[in-house]
Amino acid sequence: MSREQEARLYARVSIFKRRIEEARAVVARAFETAPRWYVALSGGKDSTCALALAREVCPDTPAVFSDDEWWLPETEEYTRRLSGLHWIRTNARHTSWFSTKGDFDGIPDYAQRQGFEGCFLGLRKDENSYRRVHLNTRGLLYFCQRDEVWHCNPIANWTARDVWAFIHSNEIDYNRAYDRLEEIGIPLDEQRIGPFAVERAIGYGQLATLKRGWPDLFNRFALAHPEARNYA
After folding, report:
1. Which stretches in the chain have pLDDT values below 70?
2. Calpha distance 82→48 (Å, rounded)
3. CB-based burial of residue 1 (10 Å sphere; 0-12 exposed, 13-18 middle, 19+ buried)?
4. What's the pLDDT score for residue 168?
5. 198 within 8 A of 95, measured Cβ to Cβ
6. Shortest CA distance to 151 belongs to which of 40, 2, 3?
7. Helix, coil or strand: residue 109
8. Residue among 168, 177, 212 nearest 2 (CA)
């Protein structure tokens, strides 16, 4: 059974419907708390859901995407299809050997300068123990003192199955790199889209997957950053 077929079947179960109701309720509460929100968009499936949920309430909600210099071709195609996208360059130190330079210290820096009051994030508890503790402690909607804006995590209690059920049952556009990940046999819970060499994720086979699914792109990246070959 394909991912889409399974997702459409799962979309019929009651636990999925309850999680959707919870997510929509917290998004509505977020807009009641503050009027000017944006979505921190990675190009991945989770932030795609956060964006879709926010735009159900406020269709003009902008998305902010950080160009990390290297990206999958499907990611560029996906972001080009989106309306209301702020495409920016930021300073990001992903590893000791891979970093990017831009006009902003990060998406929160850009958002503050734009006067946004809240940020929707696609964080989920079941991704790792750190996020589980963080989200259990802070909750789905809270004021982030560090960024000085509200944070809303509408899909915190979702699983990867919930994410795909929401995308396919609502006919939401998504990054087609996930189709390539499915083609090469990457398990559902291990399919990730993002910068090529994030230190906290590089040990999980991120670059090995890149080499397997996009060998030409991996070779270009490794030519610019030879250290990448140590991880693939």
Report:
1. none
2. 10
3. exposed
4. 97
5. yes
6. 40
7. helix
8. 168
| CA–CA distance, 61 with 51 (Å, rounded to integer) | 8
Asked if residue 37 lies in contact with residue 152, where contact means CB atoms within 8 angstroms, the answer is yes
**Can you give the C-alpha Rg of the chain in angstroms?**
17
What span, in angstroms and rounded, lies between the C-alpha atoms of 82 and 88? 14
Separation of alpha carbons 200 and 212, rounded Å: 21
**CA pair distance 175, 44, nearest whole angstrom:** 7
Please give the single-letter amino acid code of residue 129.
Answer: S
User: C-alpha 14: how far from its chain's center?
Assistant: 25
Per-residue confidence (pLDDT) for residue 127, from 0 to 100? 84
Element (H, E) at 93: strand 92-93
Tokens representing 54 are 């926010």
Identify the pLDDT of residue 200.
Answer: 77
pTM score, whole prediction? 0.94
Backbone angles phi, psi at 175, to 5 degrees: -70, 115
Q: Quick one: DSSP state of residue 96?
A: S
Sheet holding 85-89, edge to edge: 85-89, 63-67, 37-41, 118-120, 149-152, 141-144
